[in-house]
Amino acid sequence: MEDFIVAAVKVLVAFAFLLVTVMLLIWAERRIVAFMQNRLGPNRAGPIGILQTLADGVKLMFKESMTPDRADVFLYLAAPVMALIPAFLIFLVIPVGAPITVGDTTYTLQVTDLNVGVLYILAMSSVAVYAITFAGWSSGSKYPLLGSVRASAQMISYEAAMGLALVPVIMFNGSASLAEIVDAQGATYFGWVPAWNIVLIPSFIVFLIAAFAETNRAPFDLVEAEQEIVGGFHTEYSGLRFALFFLAEYINMFNMAALTVTLFLGGWQGPVFGPTFLVWILPVFWFLLKTFLVIFFFIWVRGTLPRMRYDQLMAFGWKRLIPVSLAWIILSMVAVGVRRFGLPWA
What we know:
Layout: H1 2-36, H2 52-62, H3 73-91, E1 100-102, E2 105-107, H4 117-138, H5 142-173, H6 178-184, E3 188-189, E4 193-194, H7 201-214, H8 226-229, H9 239-264, H10 276-302, H11 310-341
Antiparallel strand pairs: 1-2, 3-4
Helix pairs in contact: 1-9, 1-10, 2-9, 3-4, 3-9, 4-5, 5-7, 5-11, 7-9, 7-11, 9-10
């Protein structure tokens, strides 16, 4: 019974944390992009506009949701929920801090740790494409359908590159568990250099680029290209249904930033000192600091780079990222073999 209560509390805390974080992310992105473009951004609702996202959410809740006459009603209504569920499930396996020991009990700051955590994340991100495909097809309109077709091709292409980029990470750490990958990065080189997986530079770069494509962020936001297909797969959605897609997109952005930190930047690893409560808090602080720095990079890229053409997007994924990932896997296999068994002539 105690384990069930602990698990339920973790799920509720994770849910509330994601909702509050997404509200802050939307506000931060609007303010930062406005600053980059010499605008003010949201500045009316709350101090420096920080309650603007809450105001928009309340407005969308009371806004009328229209259903197109030619829509497949069941899939049309199910698609927003299907987009949100994988986004929440991915966050459940991400460790946000070091384990906390209270008395004889140790609590992990992670809802659950799977020994196939990396594969689980790839599976959940693959499921997310169904929501976009169903949303576009079930709307009964050609523009959402074009957006959903683009989304399926784009996400499948870049998921292949993302999966290949994670193979060297699993080989070097000897585990697919996110908690164990973070623990492995707690070691040091030469006694002081953190042994983070960012030393696997090709994997880090490929994963980061694929993360932009997976979350439909600029310059890979072809799925929602307003100049070409009105609004993409969610053109026929309004009100709370549209809000669920919007919420899922920003949760996915946070998830990808958190995964980048977990897999390549040491996760919650960082200097820890002081009394017990500070030892508990500091790992969470380092994790959030790294994650928000990666998110800032996401926002910076959006405010800087123009959108790619669709043929450039597909060619870059299949002709550049995937061959580079395959070549890097071969080199990583050789390096792991030498590290484990030594040189054959030695």
